[in-house]
Structure formats: C-alpha cells, structure tokens
Automatic annotation (TrEMBL):
Belongs to the sigma-70 factor family. ECF subfamily. This is RNA polymerase sigma factor. One of its GO terms (biological process) is DNA-templated transcription initiation. Residues 105-156 form the RNA polymerase sigma factor 70 region 4 type domain. GO terms for molecular function: DNA binding; sigma factor activity. It comes from the Bacteria. Residues 15-79 form the RNA polymerase sigma-70 region domain. Pfam families: Sigma70_r2, Sigma70_r4_2.
Length: 182
C-alpha cells in the first residue's frame, strides 16, 4: 500500500510542477522535443528515488540537478558527425555578439542587487514562477516578494539608466577628442 501512496504523491507533484520543470529543461537544451525527453528521463530517474527525498520542497532542485546531470551525460555520449573534406562549405555564421553582450550586461547589473532581491528577480522573471511559488521557494510572504521585486526592478532601471548616461557621455567625449585631433 505504501507503494501506491508513493505513486500518487509523485503523480501529484509532477502534475503541479510539470510546466515549471519543462521551462527549466528548455533552458538546458535548445530543442523543445529534446527538452521534453530530458524532463521525462529526469522524472523516471527521480521516481526511483522519490522516497529518499525527505523534504519534498526540495524536489524541484533535485529534479533540476538530475536534468543537468542527464544533459551532461547526453553531451558526453553524443556522436560527432564531422567528416574531413578537401573544401570547406560556404556557411554563414550568426553573430551572437549582441546577444552575448546583452546577457553579460544583465548578469553584471544583477550583481548590484542584494542577494534577496536577486533571488526574487531570478525566480519571478527567469524561472517564471508565480508570486506565490516564489514566496514559498524563498520562505517569505507574497507581500514581501512583491515589494522586494518592485524595489529590485526600480534599482535595475536606475542602474541601466546610469550606465546609459555614462555611455553617452563617453561617446560625446570621444567624438570631441576626434574633432580636436582632426
């Protein structure tokens, strides 16, 4: 009978958390079908150890770790389909410089936030958790999550504006120096 309780408990957990877990899987692998496969594999592996997770509030973290480990195993086991040729094919390569710069700026700006603010922003906007889920994950009230998020976003806006003003001032300064040199 304990086994059927385990099944029902696990099924309820999966039913409640599947969307959030699939979003996490999508961040780990680019292909949506691979993300679904990754999540399914992680769920199968986790099911066998479900009773060993004493604190079920940590199940999301456990599953994310299983997904990361599984993805790493898949990556290591991948078959490389490279074939040496006399002539390289003409291929255009997308320049992701701007995307990398935006991501680097975001990571840098998140660093100005206090750890509590950073946690709230990441869970609400990156992990796309609801206010209630964020509050539960961080052990705070929903009102605290809302006010912390409000202050954190205001701080991020302020930092972005400050950096934008600094950038434009630097740009004007450089143009002025170029004119003087000419």
């Amino acid at each position: 009978m304990a086994s059927s309780g385990k099944v029902l408990d696990f099924e309820e957990y999966v039913r409640n958390r599947q969307d959030a877990l699939l979003r996490s899987a999508r961040r780990l692998v680019p292909d949506p079908i691979d993300a679904q496969d990754l999540l399914q594999t992680a769920l199968v592996r986790t099911y066998g150890r479900w009773d060993g997770i004493a604190d079920k509030s940590l199940a999301d973290a456990y599953l994310r770790r299983v997904m990361i480990n599984t993805r790493t195993e898949w990556w290591r086991a991948r078959k490389l389909d490279e074939v040496p040729t006399e002539q390289l094919p003409d291929a255009s390569v997308e320049d992701g410089t701007e995307q990398h710069a935006d991501r680097a700026l975001l990571m840098d700006i998140l660093g100005v936030l206090a750890p509590k603010q950073r946690s709230v922003v990441v869970l609400r906007h990156w992990e796309q958790m609801s206010t209630e889920e964020t509050a539960e994950a961080l052990g705070m009230s929903t009102g605290t999550v809302k006010s912390t998020l409000h202050r954190a976003l205001a701080r991020l806006r302020q930092e972005l504006e400050s950096r934008d003003l600094d950038f434009h001032a630097l740009e004007r300064n450089e143009r002025g120096q170029e004119r003087c040199a000419a």
